[in-house]
Amino acid sequence: MTRSLFLDDLAEEVLSARDKGLPARAVGMTVAEFLGSDPRLGEFWTPLVVLDADAMRNNLDVMAKWTRQRGLELMPHGKTTMAPALWQKQLDAGCLGITLATMGQVRTARSFGLDSIMLANSAVDERSLRYLAGELADPTLRFVCWADSVATIEAMELALRDVDLPRPIDVCVELGAANGRTGARSVEAAVEVARRATASDVVRLAGVAGYEGSLGHDRSQSSLDAVRAYLQSQIELHRALGELYDDGEIYVTAGGSAYFDIVADVYADSIAADSRTRWTLRSGAYITHDDGFYRGISPLDGAGTNVEKPLRSAMRGVARVVSHPEPRLALLDGGKRDFPFDEGLPVPRATAAGLGREWATLDGTTITKMNDQHSYLSVSGQDVALGEVVALGLSHPCTTFDKWHYLPVVESSESDRVVDLVRTFF
């Protein structure tokens, strides 16, 4: 498998006034030229989302060691960042491949030479399946998708009925749960999907898949019990399919970024007994972690736990005070178009006279609501002045990256030296 993506073209992209947040002097320069000019964060415009290279290195190392110690492989969800440069860092850290959510994302990934892909979804659109048939002519491509019904298999066959398919498409049977997302709603129904797959000349049965994250939204006992019961059903299904598997690669895969410790625990005995199967996590948010949802739910955050080397938040927002219309209210120049809000509002962390200046801890302030281009900063303690910048802890990487074309990367949280621009493809 090729481990190096085609990233050279990204360095030659020309920066534009259409790329929000970039310094004025960057316009017309290539990415390589700009990064070679020793840029500093203080040059950038607000609002902004900034990544921390040191924290990302920490997170890559933490997750690589954690999975390796438990016999798990990692195909992190690339839709979290849709940033091939960050996918490369994950591959370099030992990941088996990258998971994606749509065939459009698969096409983007293939354009960068990614050759190990899991589509955590069904593929039933005729146009995208015909595209996939062409890609499967590449013998180095590892590709596996999901199916949760007999109808899914039949739709794939119909779309490819007159196509010269180089090889069958690897398909994992997706097991769901009541009140969950997609997936066959019982082990028995999933077995029927598997039997239909083995009878097809278009697909090949490649294992068991599913997503446990929709079954809980916290670390309460009821959520953990629901997740554990679901994962045990996955193991039951995998055992039931034993006689249907051929000699090719087999996967059992689960794991968002919230309950992967439960996945490891439930899978542990089966991992020890079954070395043939690729026991695979798809956790994607770990590379940046956050200051909100995942900080409160991830087993590797370290807050209130005994995690020796925890994940660290590697992203922060920066916004400027543009209005102080009332004594205890300030308006910032970043809003829903710039920062995530679906899993909690940004959290004020620090303030400074400007980007690149010394930060001071900010107490007694809260973001109470957001508009498209404003955040409402309620001030009950330390005041903030017009023109000051505020550093914001953000919640949910998956709805942070999609708002930005380029995200500057600084050496560390203590440095304002910009060492990279991460390009996204949403």
TrEMBL record:
Protein family according to the UniProt entry: Belongs to the DSD1 family.
SMART domains noted in UniProt: D-ser_dehydrat (SM01119)
Record-level Gene Ontology MF annotations: alanine racemase activity
Recorded superkingdom: Bacteria
Positions of the D-serine dehydratase-like domain: 314-411
Keywords attached to this entry: Isomerase, Lyase
InterPro entries xref list: Ala_racemase_N, D-amino_acid_metab_enzyme, D-ser_dehydrat-like_dom, D-ser_dehydrat-like_sf, PLP-binding_barrel
Organism name: Saxibacter everestensis
Annotated protein name in UniProt: Alanine racemase
EC id: 5.1.1.1
